[in-house]
């Protein structure tokens, strides 16, 4: 990619971000207007179109085209709601700049294959999501100065490779503190695997909330699984059928939380009457669950936007201000959480 095209992309990206702020809408909404999508209200469309004209924005493919550039987003798999939300965030951010996104999985080809592809002139770089980089992969990235951004890596890179995540510890602590404020004292957790940075941080947040409230940590109330529905169902059912079951469960992902809901149904517990369920992610399935899940919301659109921004920065040969960025989470309360029977919220 030429320096001129890189500069043009950077200018266009900053311009669209400015227009989104001035219009009071998200960057993805501006992207929809730019690409003439129909799912934008007439008033919003007119406001954004006016600002596009005012700022002199040129749509991709119209006079002074940028050229067909590509980002590769590499996932472990695309089977869960989390991956789909991250894909959407990256596609919206890149699409606003006229950059194509190729999605790939490491189940088909290893990361080393995609790193080699990254050395092609037509690929801006890689966004690697929830994957484990080998030492060889890391050395290849650094030695060849490949534009690579990690999103929620399973382990911290040992070499200076930019990564983006969210405030997992703080988000988990907020979730469990909410359950405690409702009056719950026996709170279970369906945690991620111990080798996962994300899973470990959420477990530590859970334990910090208990300790702050003076509640003893009970390892019998914690089960570790992949961020997976089927495993979440199995371990939740065992926990709920135990001698001293919890009155609330905090799940480290929406997929695991759906497993908790199904386990509760199978053993005859009502949610939230008999069991409160709190999740982490707040993907689209959280609001569609029955009952809708209270959850810690990850800013998926911002994750995609930041990953794309840093990738373009790296493609220009520039280093980001920090090799690690954590975006803030927030608590979204729905109807899957309530005070336990016989207790009142603080």
């Amino acid at each position: 990619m030429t320096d001129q095209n890189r500069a043009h992309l950077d200018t266009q990206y900053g311009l669209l971000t400015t227009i989104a702020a001035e219009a009071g809408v998200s960057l993805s909404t501006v992207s929809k207007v730019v690409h003439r999508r129909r799912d934008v209200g007439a008033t919003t469309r007119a406001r954004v179109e006016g600002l596009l004209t005012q700022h002199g924005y040129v749509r991709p493919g119209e006079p002074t085209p940028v050229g067909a550039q590509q980002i590769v987003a590499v996932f472990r798999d695309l089977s869960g709601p989390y991956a789909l939300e991250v894909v959407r965030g990256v596609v919206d951010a890149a699409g606003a700049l006229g950059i194509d996104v190729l999605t790939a999985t490491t189940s088909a080809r290893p990361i080393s294959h995609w790193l080699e592809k990254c050395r092609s002139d037509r690929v801006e770089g890689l966004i690697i999501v929830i994957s484990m980089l080998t030492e060889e992969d890391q050395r290849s990235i650094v030695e060849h100065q490949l534009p690579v951004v990690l999103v929620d890596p399973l382990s911290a890179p040992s070499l200076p490779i930019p990564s983006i995540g969210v405030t997992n510890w703080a988000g988990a602590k907020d979730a469990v503190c909410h359950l405690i404020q409702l009056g719950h004292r026996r709170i279970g957790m369906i945690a991620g695997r111990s080798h996962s940075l994300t899973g470990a941080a959420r477990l530590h947040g859970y334990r910090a909330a208990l300790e702050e409230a003076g509640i003893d940590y009970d390892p019998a109330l914690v089960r570790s699984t992949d961020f997976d529905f089927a495993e979440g169902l199995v371990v939740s059912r065992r926990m709920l059928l135990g001698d001293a079951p919890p009155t609330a469960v905090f799940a480290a992902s929406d997929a695991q939380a759906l497993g908790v809901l199904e386990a509760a149904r199978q053993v005859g517990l009502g949610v939230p009457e008999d069991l409160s369920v709190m999740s982490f992610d707040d993907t689209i399935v959280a609001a569609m669950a029955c009952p809708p899940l209270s959850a810690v919301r990850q800013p998926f659109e911002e994750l995609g936007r930041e990953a794309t921004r840093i990738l373009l920065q790296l493609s220009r040969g520039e280093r980001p201000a920090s090799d690690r960025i954590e975006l803030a989470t927030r608590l979204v309360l729905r109807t899957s959480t309530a005070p336990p029977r016989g207790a009142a919220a603080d």
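The mean pLDDT is 88. The domain at 168-297 is CATH 3.40.50.2300 (Rossmann fold).
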